[in-house]
Design brief:
This protein is of the alpha/beta class. The protein is built from eleven helices and twelve strands. The protein is globular, with a radius of gyration of 20 Å.
Length: 323
């Protein structure tokens, strides 16, 4: 057999060569670290289905934010566990709501850390759905009013970026108009634009105590079988004023990340969700997968697909590996 003129293995011979020709590189600046903030003081409660992830009181959260920033990670994403829940999720938009308190504590302590606030009602409602109910279903337009109030409360507390995750129709426009009317026009919206009704959210619902008390969220989150619909959702959110668009989950929807990145000229975020994290951690703990390699491989494939930023519970581990 005649030797091939081009031998791809020439550029794989050792790590120095592989590194020199590597197409996709991870950096700590790619990552956003999600946190669950809860009432109390000195609280650091590990989440059973998410080993290594904790519910944190605000004082502990501030210290964690300092360590995150020291690793070169530029941003955190906050989810709140309120002291009490009600039918309309009032802690989400209360001036002294748990997330608003956390933002006010973090910003002066770690001023160069970007604080992104998740905006949804599921963590705050007694029924666990993402909006106000009417006749046993989530009332879309009534919910928009509450989301706009919550966005204003988060902005007034000092949030750098607002991230609506509810999947109500028209919520980006409602939030953008509310922010602009109150002179918060400089605050970006990171929209969960293509958020699928995924089975990979289970551990998160334990962490945030946000499982629906009845039914499910498939009437407002996307069908996992649909890709073209995701493009329509992203286009609508951009038209309504989104500055960054997100695909969630990440690894099961790499094709969607790729299409969103290639079809729209906007930064793209991807969320490596709780189930993706927990599945890998379980395999690591059982010795089935190499921990460091699979953390980096999972994040690299998300970035390779087109994500400009990755929300991941592995952010601190990955930052140490690539920083």
């Amino acid at each position: 057999m005649e030797n091939p003129y081009y031998r791809p293995r020439r550029l794989r011979r050792n790590e120095a060569i592989r590194s020199m020709v590597r197409e996709t590189r991870l950096s700590p600046s790619d990552f956003i670290y999600p946190f669950f903030v809860c009432p109390g003081s000195g609280v650091r409660k590990e989440i059973g289905s998410m080993p290594g992830v904790f519910n944190l009181s605000i004082d502990i959260l501030v210290e964690e934010c300092r360590s995150v920033r020291a690793l070169g990670i530029p941003a955190v994403l906050l989810f709140g566990l309120p002291p009490a829940k009600d039918e309309v999720g009032s802690d989400a938009y209360a001036e002294d709501g748990i997330v608003q308190q956390a933002v006010r504590a973090i910003k002066p302590a770690v001023p160069d850390l970007l604080v992104i606030t998740d905006l949804c009602l599921c963590e705050y409602t007694s029924h666990g759905h993402c909006g106000q109910l009417r006749d046993g279903d989530v009332a879309n337009d009534e919910t928009l009013r509450l989301l706009a109030k919550a966005a204003l409360a988060q902005a007034k507390a000092g949030a750098d970026i607002i991230a609506p995750s509810d999947m109500m129709d028209g919520r980006v426009r409602a939030i953008r108009e509310a922010l602009d009317e109150q002179h918060f026009e400089s605050i970006p919206i990171l929209s969960y634009a293509a958020k699928y009704a995924s089975g990979f959210y289970g551990p998160f619902r334990e962490a945030a105590d946000s499982a629906p008390k009845f039914g499910d969220r498939r009437s407002y989150q996307m069908d996992p079988a649909n890709q073209r619909e995701a493009i329509r959702e992203v286009a609508l959110d951009i038209e309504e004023g989104a500055d960054i668009v997100m695909v969630k989950p990440a690894m099961p929807y790499l094709d969607v990340i790729y299409r969103v990145k290639t079809e729209f000229d906007l930064p793209v975020a991807a969320y490596q969700v709780s189930g993706e994290y927990s599945a890998l951690v379980a395999a690591h703990r059982n010795g089935w997968l190499d921990r460091e390699r699979t953390i980096l491989e999972s994040l690299t494939c998300i970035k390779r697909a087109g994500a400009d930023m990755i929300i991941t519970y592995f952010a601190k581990d990955a930052a140490k590996l690539v920083g």
